[in-house]
Amino acid sequence: MADSITVTDDDGREVHLEQPAERIVSLAPHITEVLFAVGAGDRIVGATQYSDYPPEAEAIPRIGGYSRIDLERVLERDPDLVIAWKSGNSASQVERLRELGLPVYESEPRSFEGVASSMRRMATLAGTHDQGEAAAEDFLGRMDALRATYGDRDPIRVFYQVWEQPLMTVNDDHLIAEAIAVCGGVNVFGDLDRLVPRIGREAVLDADPEVIIGGGMGEDRPDWVVAWGQWEDMTAVQRDNLFFIPPSLLQRHTGRIAEGTALMCEELERARARRPAP
Prior knowledge:
The protein is an alpha/beta fold. The chain has 2 domains: 5-137, Rossmann fold; 152-273, Rossmann fold (3-Layer(aba) Sandwich), CATH 3.40.50. The protein has 10 helices and 12 strands. It has helices at residues 29-37, 71-76, 91-99, 112-126, 129-150, 175-182, 201-207, 223-227, 235-238, 257-273, and strands at residues 5-8, 14-17, 24-26, 44-46, 64-65, 68-69, 81-85, 104-107, 156-161, 185-187, 211-214, 242-244. The strands form 4 sheets. The protein has a 4-stranded parallel sheet, sandwiched between helices. It has a 4-stranded parallel sheet with strand order 10-9-11-12. A two-stranded antiparallel ribbon has the order 1-2. Helix 1 (29-37) links the parallel strand 3 and strand 4. The radius of gyration is 20 Å and the shape is elongated. The protein starts with a strand and ends in a 5-residue tail after the last helix.
């Protein structure tokens, strides 16, 4: 058919549709957000919990949480495409959806280019190519502008906290580490093997970062970052370089990472200004 579509997903699998998808089930909040960004929000017929951006997403029927999908609810939505989160969804459940005959595209961007590519490919699957291309180019342009402004600033050592219990951070293969680098920062745990490693509090104290950035439990809960204030010998604490950035702006693989990165760059500039005079 003239309208048939074939796209390779982030797992290297080819996803084939006879025509653009009209009924899409999204299995993660970042996927829902990207679909809206590329003009396909009105095609989402099912989404997971916490799919809360843009506000229109709140009205989409829920099919469980991203870590545990209600397969019956997915089937009830009668999708012609399911978009899954490779590292977040249950691999066995995703495979079961394939066994039931549903086309499944797996999303797992690991870089800014990967985010832009996801926008383009999801738009292709939904038949909204032009909107996807525009969203991708806008995102990459904003990131390039931040890199040009901040990338060559004096390096500054950063600890980014992803989670509290267990204490978790990111290595240099993570999207957040790319944001740190764009701002001229150096990820103090960048050399660790795991993408999202678990660490001990002593490891942070030993690393003695100049800046601590955290996302916290919600959009306006900086509890985790504030708690580091008790460690008064740390450089980040002594210089008041404990910064909170809403997690949806850095921890979702969407175009809003540009907003989160801009906030990070501003905070790192504040930290540079607080360095003692030579």
